[in-house]
Design a protein that fits this description.
By secondary structure, the protein is of the alpha+beta class. The protein contains 9 helices and 10 strands. It has helices spanning about 10-15, 20-50, 55-60, 105-110, 120-125, 155-160, 180-185, 185-190, 230-260; strands at about 1-5, 60-65, 75-80, 90, 115, 135-140, 190-195, 200-205, 215-220, 225. The relative contact order is 0.17.
């Protein structure tokens, strides 16, 4: 989390006249909030540079907690799946990111480095006894990916259904022997592959006959670990240092102009 706050307010207060001192709390809170918005925009632009085809969920993952007259501090951080809190607001989106994992789950390794958390598909496969502890899922080498470089939700659902891997909670999403399901062919197309010790190591698709007609769509691998890609704090601090003085002068001018019109 980056916090945007003032230093040297006491010294600045001594240089202001009466009207300026009266407007200082409003102007300061406004400047801090506007600076936090600029910081968030700068971070978002950096994501577009350092990440390979970032999804809308990633680009819309920041929230701002505005400053107030009582709390002279604005905050910028990554959504954690809960409400940003009183006065908090999203940056650059309508909240659609919230489907699935919280943004902080996949962005924290990009900020600090280190291993990533489990995805929903990995938790499901563990419950089904297909994926061992310490194993994680990556797309197969020839698996078609969406515009963001990921397996699409529709394709993933088709794979899990065809391989009979959905859990039976409330309804069944698995392929069955019904006429409609047989027409789709998914129940015979996807299956879990095992090694010579009968340990699962992938989910495959039958695209033809024989071994040449098999394609790995989801491979099981060791836990992925990431090096730090987004220099969050350096970018945010540089942006705040550059923009806070500018935003304060603009906010003070706005506050004084508004006060004099009353």
């Amino acid at each position: 989390m980056i916090k945007v706050s003032f230093t040297g307010l006491r010294e600045r207060l001594q240089t202001l006249d009466r009207l300026e001192r009266e407007q200082l709390p409003f102007a300061a809170a406004l400047a801090l909030t506007r600076t936090a918005q600029v910081v968030a925009d700068d971070l978002r632009r950096e994501m577009q540079v350092v990440f390979d085809r970032p999804t809308p969920a990633t680009l819309n993952s920041l929230f701002i907690q505005p400053a107030t007259k009582q709390r002279m501090e604005a905050r910028v951080w990554i959504k954690d799946g809960s409400s940003p809190g009183p006065g908090g607001r999203s940056v650059g989106g309508n909240g659609a990111w919230g489907k699935g994992r919280a943004a902080i789950k996949w962005l924290t390794p990009e900020v600090f480095g280190g291993p990533r958390d489990d995805k929903g598909v990995e938790r499901l496969l563990r419950r089904r006894g297909v994926l061992a502890q310490g194993q994680y899922v990556v797309p197969g080498e020839k698996m078609p990916l969406d515009q963001y470089g990921n397996v699409s939700r529709g394709a993933l659902n088709k794979i899990l259904s065809g391989a009979n891997l959905f859990t039976q909670e409330g309804y069944s999403a698995n392929a069955t022997g019904s006429k409609r399901s047989r027409a789709k062919g998914n129940a015979k197309r996807y299956f879990v592959m095992h090694d010579s010790n009968r340990k699962p190591f992938a989910i495959a698709e039958r695209t033809g006959s024989g071994r040449s007609g098999l394609r790995v769509v989801l491979a099981f691998t060791k836990r992925p670990s990431y090096s730090k890609a987004l220099d969050w704090y350096a970018i945010a601090e540089r942006s705040a240092d550059q923009n806070l003085p500018i935003e304060f002068e603009k906010a003070m001018a706005q506050a004084l102009a508004t006060s004099r019109r009353r």
